[in-house]
Amino acid sequence: MSDSPTIILDGKEVSFTQGETIYEIATRQDTFIPTLCYDPRLKSFGACRLCVVDVKGMKNPVASCTTAATTGMEVTTSNDRVEKFRKTLLEMVVSENRELEVTPLRSIASQELTLLVDKYDAHNGRFQGAQSGHSRLDDSNPFLLRDYDLCISCYRCVRVCAEQEGDYAISVMNRGFHTQITTEFNGFLKDSACTFCGQCVQTCPTGALGDKKALKNEVMVNS
């Protein structure tokens, strides 16, 4: 008999390794939990809160990507309360996002938000208000499109640049509705520490960052 610790995940006993999060265990069990700020290459951040789950004995849902499993924990990944919570969060995200129909050629991850909005039918526009993020379409570099009108401040680009590449070329300026993804001194990428590796583009879940070469080729093919 295995001596591995176990949790109860949606009624099923599942073993885990010490230090694993609920999200990691659920993913290993092919149990769907939505997220927008998670990238398996990066440290768990818990910013988007879409990955919340119910844990028996806890009053409020917890972020599964930052909550480590403990022996005997009983987790419910989906119920009416959790699904309502997720839909409301997505509606709030959509209220800030100007466009959902973006071409997949912008990046590998560019459809993540669109797919979740469709899944949860979060199109109704209940929430209206200010919008954060302003595009830097004046950045004439030939590689990376910076369409921050589509940014949802998940910070995946900031984190992958720092944690994976060690370049720290991308940063965050201001807070709240004034939040802006930027570079040092709010300048152009060519004047920053950016090496144009494209990691930020490939992790962006909305298409706010795009591959200019791929988009240019699409235009040429369709013209």
In short:
This protein is of the alpha+beta class and 223 residues long. The chain has helices spanning 22-28, 80-96, 112-120, 156-163, 199-203, 212-222; strands at residues 6-9, 12-15, 52-55, 62-63, 74-76, 144-146, 170-173, 180-183, 209-211. It has two domains: 6-78, Ubiquitin-like (UB roll), CATH 3.10.20; 110-222, 2-Layer Sandwich (Alpha-Beta Plaits), CATH 3.30.70.
Description:
With 223 residues, this protein is of the alpha+beta class. The protein is built from six helices and nine strands. It has helices spanning 22-28, 80-96, 112-120, 156-163, 199-203, 212-222; strands at residues 6-9, 12-15, 52-55, 62-63, 74-76, 144-146, 170-173, 180-183, 209-211. Strands 2-1-5-3-4 form a five-stranded mixed sheet, sandwiched between helices. A hairpin with a 2-residue loop joins strand 1 and strand 2.
